[in-house]
Automatic annotation (TrEMBL):
Highest taxon in the source lineage: Bacteria
Name under which the protein is recorded: Basic secretory family protein
Species, as recorded: Haoranjiania flava
Pfam families: BSP
Amino acid sequence: MLFRVVIFVVISIFWSCSFKATTKNPLKSEWIAFQRNGLVLNYQSNDTQFSGDTRAKLIETFFIVYPQLIEHFNPEASKTIYFLMDTSFNQYPAARWGDTIRYSSAWFTKYPKDIDVVTHEVMHIAQSYPSYDPWWLVEGIADYVRYKYGVANVAGGWHLPEVTSSQKYDNGYRVTARFLVWCENKKPGCVKAFDHALRTNRYNSNMWSTIFGKTVDELWKEYLDDAAI
């Protein structure tokens, strides 16, 4: 429990940071701007050996996925986004600060087909929640979106996990995402409702009972009995 609290605090600090690219050059290289249908993607990299093909796929995925996320979840989301491909960033495949996503060039050099990291991260921009609470639902929704809107999940070897009794809905990421897929099948629109409530700071655990007539714990027990999606 203490470990989870520490992780939550650390992630919350990152989430609240407004690491937004401006006229400064964090990577000491030039910005390259790509524009399409009212969106601007600014790309910067300090990896001179980074694959041009992988870069093109990351950029194309943005222009395929992000317009859909804006339309379905948040029309007010930022229309100018920043991608940083960084040789020194190796903690995760990627992380989002404000309107900026910092990517690990080492990750994509090793896993060049894991393109839908973009899908997960740009959903965080579309989310634009005032807080990272509850973290498991925030990350679960982002992975739900990767599952629903991803363009290369199969090629990237990414999939939702098999269900086991040791899992819990608040594990976050793919475990929560799979549960949300199941919930959406029962009550279409519930994920969008959760997303909106989180963005407007109106989410609370009672929403589950309001939408489903059952608590989240009761739903999880039902899910474990028949988790087919």
